[in-house]
Amino acid sequence: MNTLENNAALANPPLSIGGVVLESPVVQAALSGYSDRAMRVLARRHGAAYALCEVLLDIFVAVVGTNSRNLAKIAVADEEHPVGGQLMGANPDDFAPAARRLVEAGFDCIDINFGCPVKKVLGRCRGGYLLGVPETALEIVSRVRGAVPASVPVTLKMRRGIDDSSKSLENFWRIFDGAFDRGVAAITVHGRSVEQKYVGPSNWDFLAAVKRHAGQRIVIGSGDLFSAEACVAMLARTGVDGVSIARGAIGNPWIFRQTLSLLAGRPPIPPPTMYEQRDVLHEHFRLAEELHGEDRAGRVMRKFAIKYARLHPNSLPVRDAFVSVKVNADWQRVLDRFYATDGPGRDAAADIDETIECGA
Question: FRET pair for 338, CA 20 to 30 Å: which of 106, 108, 170, 294?
Fold first, then answer.
């Protein structure tokens, strides 16, 4: 990072989303299958100013009953406020009751997903599909904004379009401007198209153009944020108001604190040591067990463990040991075996995973 980028990054003020004032411009994205309460709490403890729950189907949220597994998906901890709930669906009629349900559950902000590029989601006319039908997309925005109290901000997640056609770009701007006209407080823009999925680089030049067009309206940038240096560089080069870290935060909550350190003009924080990793791994399982129960926590935590293992100098054996975990005692045995001696950690940005769906 050069001096110019550093100075530009330092100029970024705290981020405000409607009436919700955040302590910094660094937030955690919604991540399908990952950003449950346990992950969000750890992100907030490590410096994320705000975090979003995993994307939820509008129909599911509106009818969720008392099943503990379902209730875990909308569970909110006192310490994680402000926290956002993200909705995805196809029918505008289904969004309003779902949005109200998320507010009742304790979410401080309602986000709408128009960005997911997964084939099965597109085939059901959800997520990124809606970037091709501006009328429906904007009707959904209106329904959600009208359904929740004025004090609850409504936000949007978009990609830069369905593809690289002129019609796609026209639809992007129509939805972008129309959503702000209908009262959204901020829009997160991912620099890839829906067609692109997670292949190739995120187009930061497009993000810069979006922010120039937006003026004082709040734009959060997304895409290719796998290190603190990348987060600071995006803020500096594009002028966006905040950065939304997605795949780069899975198994690496330290990325938030590392980014804040650079934004404050301090030296880079090195990767977490073995003992620092061990403490977080222990706490993450405890939080997951508290949320899901021990049996399900073991299953949930295996996919996190694969990501955490990237920070270990001996990552492959650690990963293989974690994937056989079933209960807390198994988890603790892996920690006792591989994290018993302190030492430097490994840079997680060395491994970029392109497989996480509906992240950023």
Answer: 294
20: number of CA atoms within 13 Å, CB side? Answer: 25
N-terminal to C-terminal alpha carbon distance within the chain? 22
116 is catalytic: yes
**Is residue 175 within 8 Å of residue 137, measured between CB atoms?**
yes
> Per-residue pLDDT tens for 193-235?
999 999 999 999 999 999 999 999 999 999 999 999 999 999 9
CA 190 to chain centroid: 11
CA angle 312, 51, 160 (to 5 degrees): 95
Dist CA 13 CA 36 (whole Å): 28
CA atoms within 13 A on the CB side of 246: 26
My answer on whether omega of the bond before 82 falls inside 30° of 0, hence cis, is yes
**pLDDT of 258-295, one tens digit each?**
999 999 999 999 999 999 999 999 999 999 999 999 98
d(CA 36, CA 255): 18
Enter the tokens of residue 273: 């040591």
* pLDDT per position as a tens digit, 127-161: 999 999 999 999 999 999 999 999 999 999 999 99
- Residue 220's SS3 state is strand
The conformation of residue 114, written as its DSSP 8-state character, comes to: E
For each of the domains in the chain, give its residue range(s) and CATH number, in order of start: 3-263 (3.20.20.70), 274-338 (1.10.1200)
- The predicted model scores a pTM of 0.93
Beta carbons of 16 and 31 less than 8 angstroms apart? no
The closest of 144, 51, 50 to 102, measured between CA atoms, is 144
